[in-house]
Amino acid sequence: MQTDHLTATFSALADPTRRAILARLAAGEATVTELAEPFSISLPAISRHLKVLEAAGLISRGRDAQWRPCRIETGQLEAVEGWVGRYRKLWQARFEKMDAYLAEIQKGNPDGPKQ
Predict the structure, then answer these.
(1) Domain limits of the chain?
(2) Residue 16 CA from chain centroid, whole number
(3) InterPro entries given for it (predicted)?
(4) Which of 6, 57, 113, 114 has the most C-beta neighbours closer than 10 Å?
């Protein structure tokens, strides 16, 4: 079964270790060994996390002699930002409505603003 990119991205981001790996890669390329340093898990476990991130399009791996440096890829994160952005507009409108209601309550009008 093939999943859409947004589902794969959210699935990859659901794990805190993978989010921490992405945060590290946001500072620049790193090898698997460098990425594994802050974690108390094995290199094979880190490699499995990297495979998930790579399959979701969140990272890529290069080749430099025997090293395979990892780097963050922002395209899928931009897609997530676009998806969330549509809902941000809805939330903002609701917050503005709530702010107006709270302002009316503070003025002593418990029925809220006049429509």
Answers:
(1) 5-73, 74-115
(2) 10
(3) ArsR-like_HTH, HTH_ArsR_DNA-bd_dom, WH-like_DNA-bd_sf, WH_DNA-bd_sf
(4) 57
Res 112 pLDDT > 90: no
Put simply, whether the predicted model's pTM sits higher than 0.90 gets the answer: no
The residue written with tokens 């805190």 in the block is 16
| Amino acid occupying residue 34 | E
Alpha helices in 1-115 (DSSP H): 5-13, 16-25, 32-36, 43-55, 75-106
Amino acid present at 86? R
Q: Which residues contact 24 (CB under 8 A, 6 or more apart)?
A: 30, 34, 35, 38
* 71 Cβ contact list (under 8 Å, min separation 6): 25, 28, 29, 59, 60, 61, 62
Q: Are 50 and 32 in contact (CB under 8 A)?
A: yes
Report domain 5-73's class.
mainly alpha
